[in-house]
Amino acid sequence: MTKVVSFNLKTLSNALDGELFFDNLMKSIYATDASVYRRLPLAVAYPKHETDLKVLIAFANTNNITLIPRTAGTSLAGQCVGEGIVVDVSKHFTKIISINKEARTVTVQPGIVKDYLNLQLKPYGLFFSPDTSTSNRCMIGGMVGNNSSGTTSIQYGVTRDKVLQLKTILSDGSDAVFGNLIPEEFHKKTNLTSLEGNIYKTIYSELQSETVRNHIHKEFPKPEIHRRNTGYAIDKLIDSDVFKESSKPFNMCNLLTGSEGTLAFSTEITLHLDILPPTERVMVAAHFKSIEDALIATTTCMQHRLYLCEMMDKTILDCTKNNLKQQENRQFVVGDPEAILMCELKSNDKTDVKIQAETLINALETEGLSYANVTLIDNDIDKAIELRKAGLGLLGNIIGDKKSAACIEDTAVALPDFANYINEFTALMKGYNQKAIYYAHAGAGELHLRPVLNLKLSKDVVLFRKITTDVAHLVKKYGGSMSGEHGDGIVRAEFIPLIIGDANYNIVKRIKTVFDPNNIFNAGKIVDAFPMDEALRYVPDRKEPEIKTLMDFSASEGILRQAEKCNGSGDCRKPAELGGTMCPSYRATRNEKDVTRARANALREFLTNTEAGKNPFNHEALKDILDLCLSCKACLNECPSTVDISSMKSEFLYQYQKENGFSLRSKLFAYNNKANKLSTHVSGLTNFLFKTKFTSDIIKNAFGIAEKRSMPLVSSKSLNKYIKNFDNKLVNKKYIKTIHVFVDEFTNLLDTPIGLDAIALLQGLNYDLKFVKHEESGRAFISKGFLEQAKDCATKNVNIYKDLISEDTPLVGIEPSAIFTFKDEYIMLAEDKEAAKQIAKHTFLIEDFLFSEVEKGNITSEQFHTDQKVIKIHSHCHQKAMSNQLSTFKILNLPKNYKATIIPSGCCGMAGSFGYEKEHYEVSMTVGEQTLFPAIRKAASNVIISANGTSCRHQIKDGTDREALHPVTILRRALL
Questions:
Q1: Which pLDDT score, from 0 to 100, does residue 2 have?
Q2: More exposed terminus of the chain, fewer Cβ within 10 Å: N or C?
Q3: What are the angstrom distances between the C-alpha of 722 and each of 681, 690, 718, 753, 755?
């Protein structure tokens, strides 16, 4: 049987212009979405066009298999997992087909990212208004499939309200376009002899009876609940003029929206757009000592003209404390609230919105339930919203096997019922000894309520079902919807008969049958659902694998649990146009395989399922999936769950190469410091050989270095040699502070002039400099998996500095990739971990140190000249991940007439040795071309390009032929 299936898949692959994968690696990374489920698919398809989709549909019909449609794969209910062929349209179906400004419509393919679409619509003064927390990576096809809502539904409605027309392929491979129909057009459709005609006939036959329609209204969720996604929306169809006196035309899109790809395959989507919202904004962040107080206050808040009313509870807020990026976003939080209500007001008039905010605050103060009402404006509002949007991912920061489980997280009730419903829900949770998590759309009568369960244990799997069942009955009691926006999928589909009634469920089943008689579209969802407590990510009561590592992953209770922190929320799929850094390899290839989530999934799969006694890291598939990871560390910062792929890659390389050997090229890059030390003795010859094409090509070919890549030149005299004759001259006899300067291996041997600039700058600013003999940082060893050597460097450096570094005598470094080893990997490598942690607290990148001194008043603009300069800043990825590039921005704007701006460039693409390696060169340059290179090329020749990373400067030179300067060089030249 396996051979037959394999042969058929090979035949199918040959018939597609797109790609078809059926290897174990690709199947394993598509076996999960953002839900708790794992189902290994038969294959994964990347169709290129509609013809490919029709080939897949024909194959599915012939072979009695199902097609699982997928875009970003952020579904929480298991919609995107199944045992058929996953059809991923996120790579090729990404076009905006047309925009009609006058009609306020746009037609798109299903794989376009929601925020990217709005970026393109902004010049027209329009936007697609449903605003999910995943908006920077979720795609319109998925939003239609789930009837997504998001934070703005209280003002703008939900996706179903916006879908005007769907171009689809039906289950027999025929085309059908669904849109508004007047009764005459509807009845003409029922006379068609095609599958489309049968669909219309069945719809009319099932819904024409007034008795049936009354029963639908009686059993379905209350009509005032606008966030509703339970089964198929037949209640929306019967409100049209085909079935009663109504001004609403019949539109099958009401049924298809929220159908989770179970009825047809959509290829083009026409949406109604809204005019851009008012520009003046104020947010009131009301703080509460209890969830109950926040819920009571919600009713008060909703009496005001809010554009957003969102809640975050203490569990979510506590998770933000462990995420570097969210620590900045949570600065508005006062004290330790049990809940915060975020209420956003808007107007085109600044005075008006201010009055609105004051009125709201007065109402809250009169009610007396909130203990603080913080007013936010401008960028602080965006930070607060980003904090709220990170909620799902942040829950991955809960350490250990107990996690927040998505099962009851999407219930919605009418707002007048909300407080009573939540009170009953809380009592129910107490009965299970559960302290649930509460967050999200309070103003819409929907909170994302999550129990905390260990689904690795069968007793908690039993609870998983019991809690969901009890909550389903509670939702039914209040006439609510079991799903407000996340969909039924697997986790809630079993409960559709309870929520809408058996008779209505049978109508839903018959509608599914006429659309899809062979059940080829997303089987097991909505109709004839898979059991909600089977095929989970983890086999209950398994024996937990014991994975031995050289690096210390105890902070996440081991490397396996570090990988398991990924809950599939897909933040790593954000495109380059929407900012940030994560994940550069995905941005270059647009392949799921090259995204942080896929790497975590693969590590989880292989570390869990490797046969006992064998090296769990010794898999070519793991080597393959980690190959394009640039170790930029953006996932440490931008992933709300802080899934640290970079460290796990280093551990993998170490364990894999221990068994399979270290290549000559890896040894060359790992030991480059030793090679460079030798080269400085004959720097003239070395640089001649590196610069001369003939000899350079021979060297590149011998070591697998890209032909187009320039070679780094070594300094004729190392920085350490200059330091031997160092005279610690000070501007004033009483210096400000003593600092220890870490002379990293890159500055020492490759960028010596920058080191001299740093010394001159710090001396000129009146700092006492200390230099001690130390080891190299070990960065090259870490990146190439030579962890024993890296551990030696870390241990020796910690021992050297542990009695020297303190708050009064900090450690300052110049090269980001080197100095940040003290704040990151040393804590996982050094023998004396407590000393490593103490050193980390007082270790600074030089720009961070200088900015901290500016804030203390120790450095002022008067110390620099007043010449006019324009500067464009590109910051190193490790600075963005573990510090803040704003420090570079601030210090380069310190001289009075310096105008510095940050290039929103993400990763440069070089990443140490990565960009040298011939097989990685194209990806490296593609990453650079996304934002960085075009921004530099646009800059006038007199604009100074600043880059603090040695690799970044090299990449900029190779990609744009512009010389980039380190920030300390720019400031040293500006010093009076």
A1: 44
A2: N
A3: 15, 25, 7, 10, 10
Crossing angle of helices 596-609 and 645-660, rounded to 10°:
50
- Report CA dihedral (521, 570, 122, 140) to the nearest 10 degrees: 0
Rounded-to-integer distance, Cα 142 and Cα 112, Å? 10
**Cross-strand partners of 46:** 19
Which strands form 370-376's sheet, in the order they lie side by side? Answer: 370-376, 280-288, 339-347, 306-313, 437-440, 448-450
**Residue 913 predicted with pLDDT over 50:** yes
Q: How far apart are CA 25 and CA 31, in angstroms?
A: 10
- Three-class HEC string of 816-870: HHHHCCCCCHHHHHCCCHHHHHHHHHCEEEHHHHHHHHHHCCCCCHHHECCCCEE
619: left (phi over 0), alpha (psi -120 to 50) or beta: beta
Q: What percent of the chain has pLDDT over 90?
A: 90
The reported pLDDT for the residue numbered 886 is: 94
| Contact yes or no for 589/915 (Cβ under 8 A) | no
pTM equals: 0.94
How many whole angstroms separate alpha carbon 466 and alpha carbon 463? 5
What is the C-alpha to C-alpha distance for residues 212 and 865, in angstroms, rounded to an integer?
82
Nearest to 718 by CA among 762, 688, 674, 685: 674
Tell me the percentage of the chain whose pLDDT exceeds 70.
Answer: 98
* pLDDT over 60 at 3, yes or no: no
DSSP-derived 3-state class of residue 617: coil
Question: What is the distance, to the nearest Å, from the Cα of residue 264 to the centroid of all Cα atoms in its chain?
Answer: 29
Take residue 8 and report the two structure tokens written for it.
């058929």
pLDDT category at 730 given cuts 50, 70, 90 is low
Helices in 368-417 by DSSP H: which ranges? Answer: 379-389, 391-394
What the block records as the tokens of 91 is 């790579």
Q: Are 59 and 69 in contact (CB under 8 A)?
A: no
Number of H helices, E strands in the chain: 46, 29
pLDDT for 175: 98
Closest-CA residue to 487 (of 163, 311, 228): 228
Q: Is there a contact between 345 and 306 (Cβ–Cβ < 8 Å)?
A: yes
Pairing of strands 898-902, 869-874: parallel
Spell out the SS3 assignment of 37-52: ECCCCCEEEECCCHHH
Phi, psi of 83 (to 5 degrees): -100, 10
CB 302 within 8 A of CB 309: yes
The per-residue b/e assignment along 766-804, b for 16 or more CB within 10 angstroms, e otherwise, is: bbebebeebbbbbbbbbbbbbbebbbbbbbbbbbbbbee
Give alpha helix (H) positions in 719-776.
719-724, 745-749, 752-764
Question: Which string of DSSP letters, residue by residue, matches 115-150?
Answer: HHHHHHHGGGTEE---B-TTTTT-BHHHHHHHT--B
Query: Contact, 229 vs 254, CB < 8 A?
Result: no
C-beta of residue 933 within 8 angstroms of C-beta of residue 905? no
Inter-helix orientation angle 195-207/502-515, to 10°? 170
Among 446-455, 878-887, 946-955, the minimum mean pLDDT is found in 446-455
